[in-house]
Amino acid sequence: MPASPSSSAQAAREAVAHRLRDLRKEAGLTVVQLAAACGWHYSKTSRIENALTGPSANDIRHWCTATGSDGQAQDLVVQSINAESMYRQWRDQVRAGLRHIQDSRMQASRDTENFRIYSSSIVPGLLQTEGYARAVLGIAAGIHDLDIDDSAEAARARLERSRIIHEQGHRFIVVIEEAVLHSQVADTDAMAAQLGYLLTAGALPAVSLGVIPMTIRRTHWPEETFHIYDDKHVSVELVSAEVNVTQPSEIAQYAKAFERLRSMAVYGADARALIVKAIEALR
User: Fold this and answer.
1) What is the pLDDT of residue 32?
2) What separation in angstroms does the CA of 84 have from each of 14, 80, 87?
3) Which CATH class for the 88-282 domain?
4) Where do the structural domains in the chain lie, given as residue ranges?
5) CA 244 from chain center: how many Å?
6) pLDDT tens across 5-56, in order?
7) What confidence tens digit (pLDDT) does each residue in 92-104 have?
8) Beta strand 233-237 pairing with 241-245
């Protein structure tokens, strides 16, 4: 994944453009012939293939019809829309405050039945205690140089959202790296409370908590933190942006990566032992 949202968005646009170009070539059509079949000037075809102009949904459907690839149209439409909207600049979101971000995610959480969550850096928000959340969001406020630090209010809002793990109709499969347990993002008391809460939350019927030991032979490398909401969309947390993936084929990639990460984790008594070890290390 490219380093910045802007370069990633451009790469996503280019991926659509290259696929459309490949479809034209596979159909044996020239740029001029494709344009004639679609009813537009050939320069438009060239601009689309060079990612200078983003194709509309109708453009893609006409293109796929002209190349005999109607079955690929919908996936390409979703991919193209994704290229324009998947990267939402974090700065634009936090202008309304960190609490606003927490509140905005409430409905998505309520609408989701099956959560699959992987974190390589911090305890996931739905399993955070207020003290830990306040520390994490305080760091975020500093990183993004906010004029107003509402991290305390945001932490309370995050705690309110996290109560969903006690509600009927939801299932949570959470996988974290063991390093998360030892990453001291809060003071000792807050860390102890957070780790203690993981022992409690991991025992809830709706929660499956797995920890990937640092000593395990890896079959998949650590990934950026991501949440899979049913099979509808994936949110990925980067430094400068939040990525929202809605293209079915990309969601499937994240689901596959999650299963590989999940298979390396330990659960039950073994996971609790790693958490207890981290608590003892605080002393």
Assistant:
1) 95
2) 11, 7, 7
3) alpha beta
4) 5-85, 88-282
5) 6
6) 444 566 778 889 999 999 999 999 999 999 999 999 999 999 999 988 888 9
7) 554 554 444 544 5
8) antiparallel
Q: Which CATH architecture has domain 5-85?
A: Orthogonal Bundle (1.10)
What are residue 115's DSSP bridge partners? Answer: 172, 229
Residue ranges in the chain whose pLDDT is less than 70? 1-10, 84-107, 140-158, 238-242
Residue 188: burial class (beta carbons within 10 Å; 0-12, 13-18, 19+): exposed
Distance CA 133, CA 159 (A): 8
Residue 99: the pLDDT is 46
Q: According to the model, what pLDDT value does residue 238 have?
A: 59
- The structure tokens listed for 43 are 């320069």
